[in-house]
């Protein structure tokens, strides 16, 4: 694995398999459970691009509401859920026909979306309003859970028992007031209540990426305002590590085997590939200001959304991490 300084956005592109044109300012990307389809939220185009992940070609384009900022698939791949930052809507798309079938107003600033492991519940991070809990079958808002700050990211534990929420602390009320620490909120998925808040050191951290390891033992939180990566012990519910990284994290994704963490970069710099065992870092050069990232179910490809170029890049994971 390549390590050390000297990696930049202008370096050679190692392991690039395809560069797939999508829509304007792609912000997030999801991959189907069988690895055959990609779904890309195009923030500035108000569309969802559907991509054949085998041929790396555009299959269809679905027009949706303003600012599709985040996407998540049901575990069976039959429904795609889209969070809209400007309108606070949650859109449901039937993936068999690539058509939007329903919308639900969940509240302003719908920032991120995740689906429960059984597909029955959809979770939407709502900024200052907290976390929306939606029944997938009836498309009904079940609850809005206060998180004590600005909820920006959401992830579900592999066993479905917990929902993790990245929470930015409220702004200080005056110049003499010390800013509170940002946190990762822990929601009991059965009771829909906040049961713990894990403080992230070095406030204000500005958490902008959140991911859970496949075994559920670790939660990873990227801090965009401080260029740090925090690791949380999910059993003890404490931050166990915080390290400076060469990126302003935009999004995180863990490989299916849990060995690699992919970190996209808001600034002019490479995508990071971090070994979860020894923290060694490889760099995917030639990618600038990347946003969403996802790894294929078989772990062979990493897909990175590049807003400035309007493309999703597919990388061979074996090549970028050797």
Structural notes for this entry:
This protein is mostly beta strands and 322 residues long. The chain is built from one helix and 28 strands. The chain has one helix at residues 317-320; strands at residues 16-21, 26-31, 37-42, 47-52, 57-63, 68-73, 79-84, 89-94, 99-105, 112-115, 121-125, 131-135, 140-145, 150-156, 162-168, 183-188, 193-199, 207-212, 218-223, 228-233, 238-244, 249-254, 260-265, 271-275, 281-284, 293-295, 301-306, 311-316. A four-stranded antiparallel sheet has the order 1-28-27-26. A four-stranded antiparallel sheet has the order 2-3-4-5, with no helix packed on it. The longest helix is centred in the C-terminal third of the chain and has 4 residues, at 317-320.
Short description:
Helices cover 1% and strands 51% of the residues. The protein is an all-beta fold.
Alpha carbon gyration radius: 18 Å
Strand residues, percent: over 45%
The helix-and-strand class reads: mainly beta
Overall, the morphology is globular
Descriptive keywords:
single chain, 322 residues, mainly beta, four-stranded antiparallel beta sheet, disordered N terminus
SSE layout:
Blueprint: E1 16-21, E2 26-31, E3 37-42, E4 47-52, E5 57-63, E6 68-73, E7 79-84, E8 89-94, E9 99-105, E10 112-115, E11 121-125, E12 131-135, E13 140-145, E14 150-156, E15 162-168, E16 183-188, E17 193-199, E18 207-212, E19 218-223, E20 228-233, E21 238-244, E22 249-254, E23 260-265, E24 271-275, E25 281-284, E26 293-295, E27 301-306, E28 311-316, H1 317-320
Antiparallel strand pairs: 1-28, 2-3, 3-4, 4-5, 6-7, 7-8, 8-9, 10-11, 11-12, 12-13, 14-15, 15-16, 16-17, 18-19, 19-20, 20-21, 22-23, 23-24, 24-25, 26-27, 27-28
């Amino acid at each position: 694995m390549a390590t050390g300084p000297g990696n930049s956005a202008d370096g050679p592109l190692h392991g690039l398999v395809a560069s797939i044109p999508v829509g304007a300012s792609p912000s997030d990307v999801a991959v189907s459970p069988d690895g055959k389809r990609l779904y890309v939220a195009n923030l500035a185009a108000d569309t969802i691009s559907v991509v054949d992940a085998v041929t790396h070609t555009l299959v269809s384009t679905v027009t949706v509401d303003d600012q599709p900022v985040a996407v998540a698939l049901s575990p069976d791949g039959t429904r795609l859920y889209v969070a809209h930052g400007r309108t606070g809507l949650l859109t449901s798309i039937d993936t068999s026909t690539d058509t939007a079938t329903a919308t639900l107003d969940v509240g302003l600033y719908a920032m991120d979306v995740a689906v429960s492991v059984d597909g029955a519940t959809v979770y939407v991070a709502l900024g200052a309003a907290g976390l929306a809990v939606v029944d997938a079958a009836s498309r009904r808002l079940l609850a809005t859970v206060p998180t004590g700050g600005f909820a920006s990211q959401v992830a579900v534990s592999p066993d479905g028992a917990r929902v993790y929420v990245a929470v930015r602390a409220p702004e200080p009320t005056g110049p003499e007031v010390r800013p509170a620490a940002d946190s990762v909120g822990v929601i009991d998925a059965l009771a829909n209540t906040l049961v713990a808040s894990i403080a992230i050191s070095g406030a204000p951290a500005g958490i902008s990426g959140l991911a859970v390891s496949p075994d559920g033992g670790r939660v990873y939180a990227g801090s965009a305002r401080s260029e740090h990566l925090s690791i949380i012990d999910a059993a003890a519910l404490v931050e166990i590590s915080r390290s400076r990284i060469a990126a302003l994290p935009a999004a995180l994704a863990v490989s299916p085997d849990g060995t690699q963490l992919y970190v996209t970069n808001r600034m002019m710099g490479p995508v990071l590939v971090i070994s979860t065992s020894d923290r060694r870092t490889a760099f995917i050069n030639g990618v600038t200001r990347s946003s969403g990232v996802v790894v294929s179910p078989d772990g062979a490809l990493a897909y990175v959304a590049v807003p400035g170029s309007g493309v999703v890049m597919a990388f061979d994971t074996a090549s970028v991490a050797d």
